[in-house]
Design a protein that fits this description.
Strand content: 15-25%
Helix content: 25-40%
Order of helices and strands: EEHHEEEEHHHEEHHEHEHHEEEEEEEHH
Structural class: alpha+beta
Largest sheet: 5 strands, antiparallel
Number of strands: 17
Strand order of the largest sheet: 8-7-9-15-10
Number of helices: 12
Oligomer: single chain
Bound molecules: flavin mononucleotide
Distance between the termini: 31 Å
C-alpha cells in the first residue's frame, strides 16, 4: 500500500483527527482546496439541523511547507462545534435498530450505547472527505477527474447519464476527462439534491418533503464516474491487489451503503455474454471501446475507459416515529429513542464516494508510478502513456 490513512475522534468530541501517509512532495495543497468538497458533504436537501451549525473548516497541521506537500504524512484537524462529550451523562440503554448500537455494545461490553454512537456516527466521514480531497487533487494533477451524482432517491430515478459510457481511446486524454467532468458537475451542482437531471431533482425534493411530513427517511443510489485514469492501475496477480475489490471495499465502508455495483453489473448478470462485454476496436491511432459495460475495470485492472461505480444507500435508521427495541437494563420492550437526524444523506454520499475512491485510486497510481515527488510521478506517467500501443508503429506520442 503506497497511500494509507487513519481517522480518530468522536461525533461530539473536541476534534476529528486524520492522517494521510504517502503523498509525494510538491503537490500544491492548502486548506482552501479541501473546503469545497467539505461544504458539499454538509449540504443537500433533507439534511438535519447539525449541518447548520458545524463549520467544517479543516486545518492542515502537518505535511505541507509553503503551500506544497513535503512527502511527510498529511495531518488534518476538524473542530466539532457540537462538542458536548464528557457532559453526556444520560446513559443510553436502548439500542437503535439499523445502527451500530447493539452490535457495538455486545462487542465491546458496554451497557451504555454512547461510546458506540459517538464513533460509529457518520460525522467521521467529514475527515474522510478532507483527506480524500487531497488524494483527488493528486489525481487531478495526473489528468483524472472524479464526479459523484445522485441517480435515484426515494424510488425516483434520474435519466441515465451518458458521461461514463465510454467511447474513449484507452489512454484517455486529460482534456476530454475535464470536459466530461465539468459538464456533469455543473448539472449536479445546480441541483439541491445533487442530481444532474433537473426534472428528477424536482420530483425528489417533493418526495423528501412528503417523507418529512410522514416522519420517514429515504435511501437511494449514487453513481461515481472517474475519467482520465491510465490503463494498468491495480493488478490481477494477487487477490488483494485487484482494484475492483479495493474500490468496492472503500465504497461499502461508507455508513448506510449496502451495495456497490461496478459498471453495469446488475444488467450483466441478467444478460448473455454477447450483450455484457465491450468489444475492443481501433479508435484513431490507438485502441478504444464502443461501450463501457465493464465500468473501466477488467481483471481488477483499469482498462483506460471511464471507471463507473454505483452505490445503494439504505434509508437512515433514526426515525421521528422510532422503531421498537429492547432496554438492555430492564429487558423490557420499548419504543426506540428519537434524536436529531437527517431525512436523507444520499446527496452527501456523492462527495464521500469521490473522497474514498480518490484515496484508493491515488494509492493505485502511486503503486504503479511510485515517486517521492510530483514531477517524478508525472514523468513516469507520461513515459508509460508513450509506450501504449499506437499504429502505425513508432507513432507513439
Ligand atoms: C453523511 C451521512 C450522514 C448520516 N447521518 C445520519 C443521521 O443523521 N441519522 C441516522 O440515523 N443515520 C445517519 N447516517 C447513517 C448511519 O451513520 C449508519 O446507518 C449507521 O452508522 C449504521 O451503519 P450501516 O448503515 O453502514 O450499517 C448517515 C450516513 C451518512 C453517510
Amino acid at each position: 500500500m503506497a497511500l494509507r490513512y487513519l481517522t480518530a475522534g468522536e461525533s461530539h468530541g473536541p476534534v476529528l483527527v486524520g492522517i494521510l501517509d504517502g503523498l509525494p512532495a510538491g503537490i500544491p495543497l492548502a486548506e482552501r482546496d479541501l473546503v469545497p468538497r467539505m461544504k458539499r458533504r454538509m449540504g443537500g436537501y433533507g439534511r438535519g439541523k447539525r449541518m447548520t451549525f458545524e463549520a467544517d473548516r479543516p486545518q492542515i497541521v502537518g505535511g505541507t511547507w509553503k503551500g506544497e506537500t513535503t512527502g511527510a504524512p498529511l495531518a488534518v484537524l476538524i473542530e466539532n462545534r457540537s462538542n458536548r462529550q464528557g457532559r453526556t451523562t444520560v446513559r443510553k440503554t436502548v439500542p437503535r435498530p439499523g445502527h451500530a448500537d447493539l452490535a457495538g455494545m455486545l462487542k465491546y461490553g458496554f451497557s451504555d450505547a454512547n461510546p458506540v454512537i459517538e464513533r460509529a456516527s457518520a460525522r467521521e466521514t467529514a475527515m474522510r472527505v478532507a483527506l480524500g480531497a487531497a488524494a483527488c487533487r493528486l489525481l487531478e494533477l495526473a489528468g483524472a477527474r472524479l464526479a459523484g451524482h445522485v441517480i435515484e432517491l426515494g424510488g425516483i430515478s434520474a435519466a441515465p447519464c451518458s458521461e461514463g459510457a465510454g467511447h474513449g481511446t484507452h489512454d484517455g486524454s486529460a482534456t476530454s476527462a475535464a470536459r466530461a467532468a465539468d459538464r456533469l458537475e455543473r448539472a449536479r451542482d445546480a441541483s439541491p439534491v445533487a442530481s444532474a437531471d433537473p426534472a428528477a431533482s424536482k420530483a425528489i425534493m417533493a418526495r423528501i418533503d412528503e417523507a418529512v411530513a410522514r416522519g420517514e427517511t429515504l435511501g437511494g443510489r449514487v453513481e461515481l464516474i472517474v475519467w482520465g485514469l491510465p490503463p494498468g492501475l491495480g493488478s490481477y496477480v494477487q487477490h488483494d491487489r485487484r482494484l475492483d475489490a479495493r474500490l468496492a471495499a472503500a465504497l461499502a465502508a461508507i455508513p448506510s451503503v449496502k451495495e456497490v455495483e461496478l459498471g453495469d453489473a446488475l444488467a450483466a448478470g441478467r444478460s448473455s455474454g454477447h450483450e455484457a462485454h465491450d468489444v475492443i476496436a481501433r479508435a484513431g491511432d490507438g485502441l478504444g471501446r464502443a461501450s463501457n459495460r465493464a465500468g473501466g475495470l477488467e481483471g481488477g485492472v483499469t482498462n483506460g475507459q471511464p471507471l463507473v461505480a454505483r452505490l445503494t444507500l439504505k434509508p437512515i435508521s433514526t426515525l421521528r416515529r422510532p422503531l421498537p427495541s429492547v432496554d438492555l437494563d430492564t429487558g423490557r420492550a420499548v419504543e426506540g429513542r428519537y434524536v436529531r437526524s437527517d431525512v436523507t444523506v444520499v446527496p452527501a454520499a456523492t462527495v464521500i464516494a469521490e473522497a474514498v475512491a480518490g484515496i484508493v485510486l491515488a494509492d493505485a497510481l502511486l503503486e504503479k508510478f511510485g515517486a517521492d515527488t510530483l514531477p517524478e510521478l508525472l514523468a513516469a506517467l507520461a513515459s508509460y502513456r508513450g509506450r501504449l500501443p499506437r499504429w502505425p508503429k513508432g507513432r507513439n506520442r
